[in-house]
User: What shape does this take?
Amino acid sequence: MSKTRARSQTVDKKKSQISRNSKKIQKQPKNTTKRRTTKSEATKATRRTTRAKGSAVEREKSPTPPKKKVATKKRTRRAGHEIPESVKTPIRAIKVTKGNITRGYTPEQYTEYKKQVKELQTKSNAELSEILKKNKQVQKGTKADMASRVADGRILGQIPKCPECKGGRPRFDFRSAMYLCPGFQDLYEFVPCHKRFTMDEIKRKPWKE
Assistant: This one.
């Protein structure tokens, strides 16, 4: 009996301690006061608001400036080398038919021209360029262009310099049987010509192999 009484007394003591502690916790007032802002924080906040308002007012007052037009320089041609009105219009493509396909060549010359072009395709670009250089002809272009110039020169001869601008090499179109000089590269700039010639007006020289 004594043991049970001692146990019950200890339990009662513990319960009384727990109840006392809970009452103390309930009595303690809660800290509900808000943290006061310092003077430095308040001044920073006011500065931010004034800056935002000032930037908004400036945006409303100042309209977006118009875009400036960039002045582009127009290319001017040298005096005495203006393109004539007859050449300014684009050249129409000539409709190739059996009657006019060999207008610049005779039928025998045209067959020889095709044969020469086929044979020259086997040569290298350096060899074709060397043949054209020996005959003072234009060496630019693709392999097919250079082969066509060599074949044309073997049949009709060397194309001389343009009698109009004295610097360019006229280009021959056997479909229209006409020559057209594009011009030549001067020391500082390109000098256009755009002069047309017939086959009778251009006297060719003998071809060198």
